[in-house]
Design a protein that fits this description.
Strand content: 5-15%
Number of strands: 6
Oligomer: single chain
Mean pLDDT: 93
Helix content: 40-55%
Order of helices and strands: EHHEHEHHHEHHHHHHEEH
Radius of gyration: 25 Å
Number of helices: 13
Low-confidence stretches: none
Shape: elongated
Strand order of the largest sheet: 1-2
């Protein structure tokens, strides 16, 4: 009952296993385990993995489980992760491979180009969801699994909707990341998506605050100031037209579908509501927007929020 799981690393020997069992104080009797292990040929059949331990488990049960490789899968749940290094760290905290192994593949042009991706948009291959996989999955196999999930997600219907927007699937994902960062409530996502699509189609700068925050790499910002707007980055949508080179975070599936099923409106402007409810005031004209923006600025000033 001292440990919930037994972790056997890839390429572990039988001696490594026994030392691990001793160190973690898992066995009541190392001698009886060694005796049973010898009779059951465990020394030549050690399989790596993450094995569930149960109170009162016998030597035979444990040995059979390891020999058969009957490990319990890990549940990975990811969404809203901003940076590649954060994602690599999350994976390393749940899987055997270290973060460097994952980041080296994420940054490998030779590796990711076979998926038709680059270092900026490699994130678009990961559809945020909950997945089960074995603890000792290799980074390469992890990517292969994620690409299969990507192919499964992008059905013919979703691809057709993306094409009707004149956007690639990677661009839909990138826009969804902005929509998700802007929307506190899912029901506003299709409206926000429609607004940004209006801007894209009219050739108007997106001017999305979350992209500026991403470009400045400061996620504590509550108010985007003129100083922050000066950052020289292709992710600064106040300076550069169109979509940024890649997503600013992993959007939810709801956000992706909100772009594909956007609300058809004439909105060009949006501003957070002055009641700090998380909702937005939308506007079709600059004049309407200025009224909304002033109300929000006044509310920020009243609360002494200046950055």
């Amino acid at each position: 009952e001292n440990q919930k799981f037994l972790y056997i690393k890839t390429n572990s020997s039988y001696d490594d296993l026994v030392n691990n069992l001793k160190t973690k104080d898992i066995l009541k009797s190392t001698a009886s385990f060694a005796s049973a292990a010898g009779k059951m040929d465990l020394p030549t059949n050690v399989k790596p993995g993450r094995y569930r331990l149960k109170k009162g488990m016998t030597n035979r049960t444990l040995i059979n489980m390891i020999k058969a490789g009957n490990q319990e899968p890990v549940k990975l749940k990811f969404q809203n992760i901003r940076k590649k290094e954060n994602f690599a760290a999350y994976l390393a905290s749940n899987l055997e491979a270290d973060s460097l192994s994952f980041i080296s593949l994420l940054d490998s042009t030779a590796f990711i180009s076979k998926y038709g991706l680059n270092q900026d948009n490699v994130y678009t291959m990961f559809i945020p969801n909950t997945y089960e996989m074995y603890w000792n999955v290799s980074p390469v196999d992890f990517f292969e699994r994620m690409h299969k999930e990507y192919d499964k997600f992008w059905t013919a219907e979703r691809k057709q909707k993306a094409a009707s927007l004149n956007l690639s699937t990677a661009q839909v994902y990138t826009l969804a990341s902005i929509v998700d960062a802007e929307a506190l409530y899912d029901k506003e996502m299709p409206i926000i998506a429609g607004l940004y699509l209006n801007r894209l189609n009219k050739g108007i700068l997106l001017q999305a605050d979350p992209t500026v925050i991403f470009a400045n790499n400061d996620f504590t910002v509550k108010r985007v100031t003129n100083k922050l707007l000066q950052v020289q980055s292709l992710y600064n949508t106040y300076k550069y037209a169109g979509l940024p080179p890649g997503p600013i975070m992993m959007p939810s599936i709801n956000a992706i579908d909100a772009v594909l099923n956007y609300n058809k409106n004439n909105y060009i402007y949006m501003c957070a509501k002055e009641d700090f409810s998380g909702y937005h005031n939308f506007a079709e004209t600059k004049a309407e927007h200025e009224i909304n923006a002033k109300k929000y600025r006044d509310a920020l000033n009243k609360r002494n929020i200046f950055k």
